[in-house]
Amino acid sequence: MKENILKIEDLVVAFSMYKSGTFKKEKLEVIHSLSLDVDAGEIVAVVGSSGSGKSILASAVLNLLPGNAVTGGKITYKGKEITKERQKELFGKEIAFIPQSVDYLDPLMKVGKQVQGVFGTDERRKELFSKYRLEEDTKNKYPFQLSGGMARRVLITGAVMGKPDLIIADEPTPGLDLEMAKETLDHLRSFADNGAAVLLITHDIDLALNVADRVAVFYAGTIVEVAPKSDFLAGKDALRHPYSKAFIDALPQNGFKPIPGSQPYAGSLPKGCLFLDRCPYKDDACTAEQAEREIRSGKVRCAHAS
Amino acid sequence: MLLEANNITFRYTEKSPLILRDVSINVAEGDRIGIVGPSGYGKSTLAKILAGYEKPTSGTVTLDGAPLPMKSFCPVQMIYQHPELAVNSRWKMAKTLNECWHPDDFFLEKMGIEKEWLKRWPSELSGGELQRFCIARALAPETKFLICDEISTMLDVITQAQVWNILLDTAKERNMGMVIITHNLALAKRVCTKIVKAQEL
């Protein structure tokens, strides 16, 4: 049994906001009873449509949510809950974040200084720069002077400065060409092979399948299926949830067949199964709340899965 | 109709390096030409030149032998990678959609645009929803050629398949010519009639 690094249990995230035209507040629940765990040496890819709440998941783990967010459930790191006091010890040292873009860097500070941060050393920075093929004079550049691929490598060096045990990468590949995207993911793979746990958030499922061990499929704010990579590679018949099957079917190298409709808005979710409106197999059993079930070494929220 | 780019050379300023050197490309009606390749080979620049948004340093872009019209509706239309940057953030969606023609209800339904979205601001729609508006806006009846610059990279695969199926149906129905720029070779194989590598341009 491998050591469990990150465990998320029944996470709920809601935003409280004003109803339009009134002074009353309402809660908009964007993530509903979500559970996921990541073990040491493992990459778990979270895939799903845009607007399904993938990035909110990352923000919830890293406590980066805005002030009007209300959270419930439990997030534990190495068996202990992440409290305010532990955050200071962990973030930036044991838990690292690779953000979506250079926009997360300070535009007025030279890259070298930012990468090194408060805890890093110049030696470690040099070592990492040569490992990621960044020229030594990159350290004197400002974020706007970096190309897309360089920026990505700078963000990675910043994240791994403190030899983290948990890496959370939020959409690390869009905008990169295939070679560079693969290289970025290979870096993540090598961290995992050295014993770190990686949570990879992406919508690029074919790329994610190259490196991930398990894949969690996100839809409308919760995980509808978690399955080992081999099931995704085996094709749609090995998958459990109709949404995951539709996902595979829509890939250009497969059927390129879309399903009609769009993801429900967080304010007007259907009762019961979230995928109800678009599911080709729906019947009466789907109107009840769908609990998570374990089937064939994966998890799924669907009454009909087998 | 024939869209031709002849011996295009391009650099942004006199001091900057050449981005395109002596590039020629022909797109006939009904052609769907895919351009694939790594970043930095001037794919997007070529797209902007073909649509008339950039002037080449030397070389010409012609439509049936004549230069692209600058003062009337241009039959060559372009769709961008980032829909949120291609719409006016201070206009409601109805105004953006009707910018150059008035799509009817039947067309909107086919595009998967819901009536209710027309009253919203761009910030209240997702990337995939906005991209549908940008595509609908570009598909005026006078449009003969469509330049698509990475129009589906930020969409999830189901929305991507939805958007491409609509576009391909319309393109076949009207016999439009298309230039499709993408990183995704599988996608290019699926939608294009011919694929060109950016390195060989």
Summarize the structure.
The complex is a heterodimer of chains A (306) and B (201). Chain A has helices at residues 54-61, 84-90, 111-116, 122-131, 148-160, 178-193, 205-211, 229-234, 242-249; strands spanning 4-18, 25-39, 43-48, 69-77, 80-81, 95-98, 166-170, 197-201, 214-219, 222-228, 293-295, 298-300.
Keywords for this entry:
heterodimer; A: 306 residues; alpha/beta; four-stranded antiparallel β-sheet; 9 helices; B: 201 residues; Rossmann fold; five-stranded parallel β-sheet; 30% helix
Spatial order of strands in the largest sheet of chain A: 6-7-8-3-9-10-12-11
Low-confidence stretches of chain B: none
CATH class of chain B equals Alpha Beta
Count of individual helical segments of chain A: 9
Oligomer: heterodimer
Order of helices and strands of chain A: EEEHEEHEHHHEHEHEEHHEE
Globally, the shape of chain B reads globular
